[in-house]
Every structure is written in structure tokens, then in C-alpha cells.
Amino acid sequence: MSIDTPVLIVGGSLNGLTAALCLAHHGVACILVERHPATTVQYKFRGISPRSMEIFRSLGVEDAVRARDSADQSHEIARARNLADPNVQWSGLAWPDTTAISPIRPATVDQDRLEPILRERAAGLGADIRFNTEMIDFEQDDHGVRARIRDRTSGAEESVAARYLVAADGARSAACTALGIRRTGPGVLQHWMNLIFATDLPLFLRGKRFTSCFVTDVNGSILPRDSGGNWMLAVQYAPERGESPGQFDAAGCLDLVRKAAGRQDVKADLIDARPWEVAERFGKGRAFLIGDAAHVIPPTGGFGGNTGIHDAHNLAWKLSFVLNKGASPSLLDTYDAERRPIAEATLAQALARLSSWFKDPTGRLPPPVPAVDDVDVVFGQIYADGAFVHEGAARASRFEDPRQPSGRPGSRAPHVAIVRDGETSSTLDLFGQEFVLLCGADGDPWVRAAGGIRDETGGGVVAYGIGHDIQDVEGHWLQRYGVTAAGAVLVRPDGIIAWRASGADEAPEATLRSALRQILGVSPAPAP
Ligand SMILES: Cc1cc2nc3c(=O)[nH]c(=O)nc-3n(C[C@H](O)[C@H](O)[C@H](O)COP(=O)(O)OP(=O)(O)OC[C@H]3O[C@@H](n4cnc5c(N)ncnc54)[C@H](O)[C@@H]3O)c2cc1C
């Protein structure tokens, strides 16, 4: 039996479920297959960056995620010999105050609590999510992808015919291997184990709640969870010294946890080890890699899972516009052009933090790049090339300071506090489905131009006159978007600036149409 679907997603953990949700949000039908019988019981990912929370807000799950938030903003990062050490060094809040950059706060939700929320919302919007089902293999040609999937309970096999494949099948991605895509980067530099252990350790160190603690006695990091819940200790082992995953038996784990805790009455189990690298391409033909299938980033900085959420968000609107709104398939090439350089730069930042936070027993870490502020890494990503209209040469750095946004095409559209229909919100709340044109107070010709291209490929654009139908309550919009009152800024469905005009234009409709076509890869209509 064969099933047809526009998109097949393989892998139903953090990033596969996010991709299903993003596609369903755009009205794209998809089938997701996950070989496990249910969402994860592991909880590697927990720190949801404020940018990822912006994405979750646009997908309608912010409140549900926030309801599982186990942290408030007072949690700090600690360093000590062990948790019983009286001399704890504090190295600041897990997240600084970013309210000037975004009205949306970060959240701390362990992956096993987050995934059911993503799954439920995606299924509610129509995604066909099949757990206990694995993809056996796939092939593709110019017209589509054909995959074999198997129900792991009954053993029944089905064939799926899809227009596109999204591979969210993790660090050991079989899809990546089958596509013949190599992985580049530092490879296996260090080996880490995640020990999950049940404990009644207190959530407070010397009276302060902590998000994580670097425990120098075991050269590892301890991540607490709710009182009485399962905590995690991440520790290194070195095969060069004859150490191996096998030594992490129950007794070895217990010993490590006791050393880290500085007390005897805790227990431990479970393991994990992984290389850190980026695939040399994020897609081939009709198949695209997202999340750990595309890049494996050390946990230092908490960037890995968040980078995957951004991948899914970036790819989903492009698939939707190609499948349903007449955009050229070349739009999908911009997924690799945009996301891969960001993943490489983010990996370099995570490795720089790894070098400075932990001892490197094997001495194989590369020389660290200059560290960039976490806030820049998360909010200030700048695409070098992709689905936007360039303004001059690309910048060398992949990150900018979002406190002083450039407003350049290829960067995140900044937050500006607005009042709309009497309600206070953010420019960020305008983005998510369509292209949006923000026009200045003297930008009526741009608003009319948007009306004139209503039938354009991509469904045209939704225009807002700032100072007319929307009020800029704090007077920041012109400066943050780098335009004058006669200018306009075109923002993509994923909240990335696609094009801007700093002022008026002699032929605004033609200019706007041309920009949109360029972004969507659509050729100009033939002359009549
Ligand atoms: C200790 C630690 C702490 C971390 N903390 C953070 C953090 O705070 N913030 C952050 O941003 N990141 C963090 N990360 C990184 C983050 O956990 C990962 O990037 C993220 O979990 C990867 O999710 P994924 O969905 O891409 O892949 P995975 O979680 O590996 O999921 C892949 C899924 O695909 C399924 N699958 C594979 N092959 C098939 C097949 N053929 N058919 C069907 N299903 C298949 C697998 O069963 C699996 O469920 C941390 C990582 C570690 C190790």
C-alpha cells in the first residue's frame, strides 16, 4: 500500500516535532515517523532560548510551554568542587535580561515535557504523527521521494510517496549517510556521558537556585531538575586513557554522582556520547537535514537544540511557499545557504565555551574563536546569502548585536512595542504566516503598492502603516529598522527581514513586486 504526502519527516524528537508543527501551522500536510513508541524520556534539551520562544509563540504554543517552565529568571550558573563545597563561584544568570530586545522570555522546559506539547499541537493542526514507526530506506528522483516505512509492532510495511523529505533523525542520521553527505568539523574531540539520576538533592546552593553547576571534582556539569526529579550529570571520558562507555556501569555512575554531589546518598544510571560536527550540505535534491542530523553542537551555551528549532522554522515556510504558493523550488536552496554558515559559527562558539569552561583531557579542542555574547548568537544571527535582497557585500561576522540592530535584510526583524486595535503587543506578533510590509508614517505609496500586488506569487504581502493602523509607542521603529518615515521593510513569514527601502520610490509597486519575485526565485512575468 502506498500513501501520498507533500512532506515526510523522519525523526519525531525535538526538531522533527517542531518541523511537523511549523509545516502544519503553514497548512502543509505531512507524515512524521518516529521509531520510538512515545516521545523521549531523555532530557538533553532544556534551555529554550528567547528566540526559540518567539518561534513557539508564533506557533501558538507559548502558553503551554510556559506552563511547564521550571525556572524563573533568577537561576544562576555555579562553579564548585562539588555541590557540598562551601566555596561556590557564581557566573551570572543563565539568561540576562533581554526585555529591550524581545518581550518574550526564555524558558526552561525539559525535553520530555516539551515534546508532548509540540506533538499535540502539530497533530491538532493536522500533522499525521506516527510513533513506533521507522523509515527503512528511501530514494528520490526529480519528481519526488519514495520511502519505505514499517510499523514496529505489527511489522507491516508501507510505501510513502512524498514531494519532500525532512530528515530530523539525529546525530547518527541514516538519511544523511544515504544522501552521501559528509560531515565536516572537529569530529569527536571529547567523549561525554549523560548520567541521569534520581535524587533528593536540594535545588539551592548556598541559598541560591541554580541552572547548572560546573563540578570541578569530576570535570563535569550537573543540571538540576524539580525537587525529587531526575537530574543529569554530564562527564567526560577519554578512550586514549583506556576509558570507555562500558566503564559507566551502575557502580561507576554512582561513584561519579556521589563525587559530584559531595555526598553518598544518591543513585544513577544511563549514558550518552557524541561527536560535534556540521554536515557539509544541509540537503540534497528533495531531502533536507535539520537539527542534529545537520549539526551536532556541544551543550556549552545551550545552542544545539535551539539551532535545530530555527532550522525547522526556516525550512517550513519555504516548503509551504514552494508547495502551495508558486515559489520556485530554488527557494529551498536558500535553506542551506542561510542555515549552514550559522550552524558552523554557532558550533565554533560552543567549542570556545567548552575550552574555557572545562579541562580538555585529550588536548584536541581547536584554538577557540573569540567568544560572542550569547544574546548575539541567539538573536543577532545574520544570513550571508539567501532568500532576501542583499544590501551591499555580506558582513564577515555571522552575528550582530541585537541591542543595536542593523535592520539589514538577512537579519531578525527587531521587536518594537506597538499598539494595534487598542492592544499593546510587538511587531514580532505581526509575523508568522505571510510576508509583511511595515510602512512608515509617510509610506502610503508602499501600502498602496502592497495592495497592487495582492495576486502576486506567494499571496502578496500584508501591509501595515506604522503611525496609522499601528502605533509605535516608544518611537523606536525607524531607528531599529533603519528606514525613514517614507520607507518600508518587507519581513518574511519567519521574521527575517527580506528587503527594505530607506525612503520613497518612484515606482513602489514595481519595486516591491521585483523584490518579492527575487526572494521567491520567481522569474518576471513575460512582457505582454
Ligand atoms: C547534555 C546535553 C545538554 C543539552 N542541552 C541543550 C540545551 O539546553 N539547549 C539546546 O539548545 N540544546 C541542548 N542540547 C542539544 C540538544 O539536546 C539536541 O540538539 C537535540 O536534542 C537534537 O534533537 P533532534 O530532534 O535533532 O535529534 P534527536 O533528539 O537525536 O532525535 C532524532 C530522532 O529520530 C529518530 N529516528 C532516527 N532514525 C529513524 C528512522 N529511520 N525512523 C524513524 N525514526 C528515526 C530517533 O529515534 C530520534 O527520536 C544538549 C545536548 C546534550 C548532549
List keywords for this structure.
8-stranded mixed sheet, alpha+beta, binds flavin-adenine dinucleotide, FAD/NAD(P)-binding domain, 3 domains, 528 residues, Glutaredoxin, globular, 12 helices, 26% helix, 7-stranded mixed sheet, D-Amino Acid Oxidase, Chain A, domain 2
Number of helices: 12
The name of the CATH topology of the largest domain is FAD/NAD(P)-binding domain
Largest sheet: 8 strands, mixed
The CATH architecture category of the largest domain equals 3-Layer(bba) Sandwich
| Sheet/helix structural class | alpha+beta
**Could you report the average pLDDT, rounded to the nearest whole number?**
89
The total beta strand count reads 27
Account of the 3D structure:
With 528 residues, the protein is α+β, with helices and mostly antiparallel strands. It folds into 3 domains: 2-70 and 109-185 and 281-332, FAD/NAD(P)-binding domain (3-Layer(bba) Sandwich), CATH 3.50.50; 71-106 and 189-276, D-Amino Acid Oxidase, subunit A, domain 2 (D-Amino Acid Oxidase, Chain A, domain 2); 413-519, 3-Layer(aba) Sandwich (Glutaredoxin). The chain is built from 12 helices and 27 strands. The protein has helices spanning 14-25, 50-58, 62-67, 111-124, 174-178, 250-261, 304-324, 333-357, 374-379, 444-452, 477-481, 508-520, and strands spanning 2-10, 30-33, 47-48, 76-80, 89-93, 107-108, 128-130, 133-140, 145-151, 157-167, 183-187, 191-198, 204-205, 208-215, 220-223, 230-237, 276-279, 283-284, 287-289, 295-296, 417-420, 423-426, 435-439, 461-465, 471-472, 488-491, 497-501. Strands 1, 2, 7, 8, 9, 10, 18 and 19 form an 8-stranded mixed sheet that branches. Strands 4, 5, 12, 13, 14, 15 and 16 form a 7-stranded mixed sheet that branches. Strands 24-23-26-27 form a 4-stranded mixed sheet, covered by helices on one side. Bound molecules: flavin-adenine dinucleotide. Flavin-adenine dinucleotide (FAD) binds next to helix 1, strand 8 and helix 7.
